[in-house]
Amino acid sequence: MRQNPVYPLLNTGPNRPMTEKNPNSVEAVKVAVRVLDELALQQRPMGVTELADALGETKPRIHRHLSTLKEMGLIEQERTTDRYHLGWRVFQLGEAAGNQFDLRARAEPYMVRIRDALKETAVLAVPINGTPMVIATVENIYGRILITVKPGNRPLPHCSALGRLTLAFQPKPVIEARLAQSLQPETSLSLTDPARIRQRLDMIRRQFYEVSDGEMMIGVNTIAVPIFRNGDQLAGALAVVGSIQNIPNPPRRVQVEVLQHCAAELSSQLSSEAYADWHLRESASEILSGLAP
Fold first, then answer.
1. What angle do CA 178, 183, 188 make, to 5 degrees?
2. Is 231 helix (H, G, I), strand (E, B) or coil?
3. DSSP reduced 3-state for 10
């Protein structure tokens, strides 16, 4: 019989009382979380040197954290390349967190409604350190060809609808830090100019939706709208993804309206009247009237 792995526990015996604390323990936890974040963001195995350079840390320090994370089952090391990637235990923790996360449970019936109304795959993402992470999808059951996004995917902040929508509602220092990084294109249509991206972020805050036509994959378009909680705090994003043949750029008015209506109801459940405030602040009907039916 396969047994569950046993992980080392904190030594609380007489030689190490509970009150003993390492003054660097908080900083150590921060570095370990940054390592996990970087591995999740890159979505590929990484070596010690590459991780140290990306995080601005020394190789010995990163190696110590990798050894501990590996011992705990949070990362795994490839035998052939010695590179590291996220381990199975992270997936288990993510699944548990996802099941407990009330936005996912609340959003599921709305995602089914969106899928059935628009005949496209519906996607739910949440912001993680200013970057969206897909946590649920309801796949299109109506089309002959399925276009979807896997849970766990992190669309790029600068050249995806979910990414720019998430970035638009972040504090200004977070936005500038992201735009100061190297903005690599995914396709020939990817938006990588910081000045143009800032203009798009302003537009997103005004129109409460974003599109990304062919920026992550040629021929594929995404429409994303924000979900808020506790006033104007971004809680997540609803989106549809599909062929440019079915999701044009600019999108159809009905596509944006269905998404925004569902997002507004979810936001209201999460103690946010951001959509009601938006209707008062902006001429929503004028914004949407510019779209084809």
1. 145
2. coil
3. coil
